[in-house]
């Protein structure tokens, strides 16, 4: 079978309601007037990664559970509008949704509706196998029920990446993802010094590359046993929202990796895409294009890694 999918994305489809608030944490009050409006749009972590990959010219397909509801219709429309293949599995509990409170500095607080997942949710094994056989690479989101698909991906012999997001280094839920992926992304926000957790991931699992993103401080790259600091990139416009920055980083990193770039260069491209994402309001779903990414990366070639 031909590999007609560059990246298969598993999980992470859903809808967010965006509320711009005057500050975070939000002090208690009986009510707040939201002049900027309250908007609902498709786009959670898997959607953002898929949109980012497709914007960079990679043939992308997304598999997840979706409800037969207005939120599911928004997700389907997003993929249709961006030319992304989508295979859906019926979810009687409904499509995932969340509320994101976004502060003036772009930080966010997310409230996830966990009633829209069930412990016995599953992605059909035959569907996972068939799509994995067509894919060059699979990016697995940590949403339920993607952990159950990891052994099937190993059987398929396809490379795997995942994003642990704000893992604290201890929560056992994340361990199957951390230990069964070739490339592991995570946020340094909850780790203090991220190096011990990064090295544990590499030692206990299959990861040959571990990347901890650190926002305005750049990122930490562990590859071939060597830890390298990746400088932050100045955003091309004012920062309005950090939502989706990590997903943009992952998409651009994978774009570089699938084009044969060394890990440090992939990480620099990730930093460029993440900085771009911070300039896009949460009410929109947009991603940096390939030409712009490569042009900015060429301009940043002279910036050396931080030892």
UniProtKB/TrEMBL annotation:
Domain Carbohydrate kinase PfkB: 10-285
Swiss-Prot/TrEMBL keywords: Kinase, Transferase
Pfam families from the UniProt entry: PfkB (PF00294)
Any one Gene Ontology molecular-function term assigned to this protein's record: kinase activity
The name this protein goes by in its record: Adenosine kinase
High-level lineage: Bacteria, Bacillati, Actinomycetota, Actinomycetes, Kitasatosporales
